[in-house]
Amino acid sequence: MANKKGKGPSSNVIAQNKKARFEYHIDEVFEAGVALSGWEVKSLRAGKAQLTDTYILIKNSEAWLLGSHITPLNTASTHELADPTRTRKLLLHRKEIARIFSRTQDKGHTCVPLKLYWKGPLVKCELALVTGKKQHDKRATEKDRDWQRQKGRIMRDQNRS
């Protein structure tokens, strides 16, 4: 199936939380559906979403996405009040919610969203159980990233010669 916009294989990604991958060690990843209203889906199609400083809250055996920001379009519905930072319900199986709840009760564990993406006509949220990194772990991650970038430059220069 050809991609309409030509952005490559990752064009189904709406928003990513790159900061979460740098700040945390990812232990376990889940996929959840997101309950949205009509204007939110239109805004997501336009790519107007942010996941920075977003987290998952388990309350009354339900998972909620807090802190996500979906900017309403100018052409959004006039009869509905568009709240860009409202809490959105995440659709997970009961066993997954129980697992996330039990792991987040442990010291040092939390649950954060990693990305929002399209899966067919549906919006999905990839969320992860994470533990915080120490400062030296962050420095090691940055050092490794710089080394990979430098190694790519060296290989590219060797192939040109």
Structural notes for this entry:
By secondary structure, the chain is of the alpha+beta class. It has a single domain, classed as Small protein B (Small Protein B, Chain: A, Beta Barrel), CATH 2.40.280. It is built from 4 helices and 9 strands; from the N terminus they run βαβαβββββαββα. The chain has a 7-stranded antiparallel β-sheet. A two-stranded antiparallel ribbon has the order 3-6. A hairpin with a 2-residue loop joins β8 and β9.
- Mean of residue pLDDT? 86
N to C succession of SSEs: EHEHEEEEEHEEH
Helix content: 25-40%
CATH architecture: Beta Barrel
How many distinct beta strands?
9
CATH superfamily: Small protein B
Largest β-sheet summary: 7 strands, antiparallel
Domain tally: 1
**Could you name the CATH topology?**
Small Protein B, Chain: A
* Secondary structure category: alpha+beta
CATH class: Mainly Beta
Question: Oligomeric status of the shown chains?
Answer: single chain
Low-confidence stretches: 1-6
Query: What is the rounded Rg?
Result: 19 Å
Physical arrangement of strands within the biggest beta sheet? 1-8-9-2-7-5-4
Overall body shape: globular
Give the helix tally: 4
Quote the distance from N terminus to C terminus: 37 Å
Q: Strand content of the residues, in percent?
A: 25-35%
GO molecular function, one term: RNA binding
Protein name: SsrA-binding protein
GO biological process, one term: trans-translation
Pfam families: SmpB (PF01668)
